[in-house]
Amino acid sequence: MNILLNIIIGLGLSAACGFKVFTPLLIMSIASLSGDLELLEEFKWIGSYGALITLSVATFIEVFSYYFPLIDRLLIKIEGPTAVIAGSIMMASCVVELSPLLQWAVAIIAGGGTSAIVEFLSLNKLKVVGYELRKEYRFYLSSLTFLAALFFSLLALYAPYLSFLLSLVLIFKAFKYYIESHISIKVV
Questions:
Q1: What are residue 36's phi and psi, to 5 degrees?
Q2: Less packed terminus of the chain by CB within 10 Å, N or C?
Q3: Per residue in 24-53, pLDDT tens?
Q4: Considering Cα of 78, then 79, then 80, then 86, what sign does the dihedral take?
Q5: Residue 183 — φ and ψ, nearest 5°?
């Protein structure tokens, strides 16, 4: 049962990486430092004060990048791959009591896959509303994705089963959006 709970927590944190890459890592660092989350030995660095400071700065830059269009465009281009990597790291650090091969298989497939799907959904929402939004709308969009990442991260740690259900809803929405936009079939 402990392994299943850890996988569910990892899935929730991986889904949060699809919204903002560094916010879930920052929440994970804070939870590890406070003792609310136990990480595998090879991932204890996430719970260090150096990681906390670095992730705080990275989160700040990621959230307020809309003020700097060049940085904003760069982050949008690299968010997909970094979200997959962060989602894989989140899952691998949560999954305990598994062999290394199984641990990384679950991390890459479930963790990286979940964050990629959520990133796909949020990136396509950007395309729908148009990337070149006026500054005040980009503020709302950035704030909304930050709050979603914060919400999913906290939910994954403190209400993991609810986080798992919401992650499944997001995955279903992403597949529904993809099917409707590429195949012209209306999914109920």
A1: -80, -15
A2: C
A3: 999 999 999 999 988 888 899 999 999 999
A4: positive
A5: -115, -10
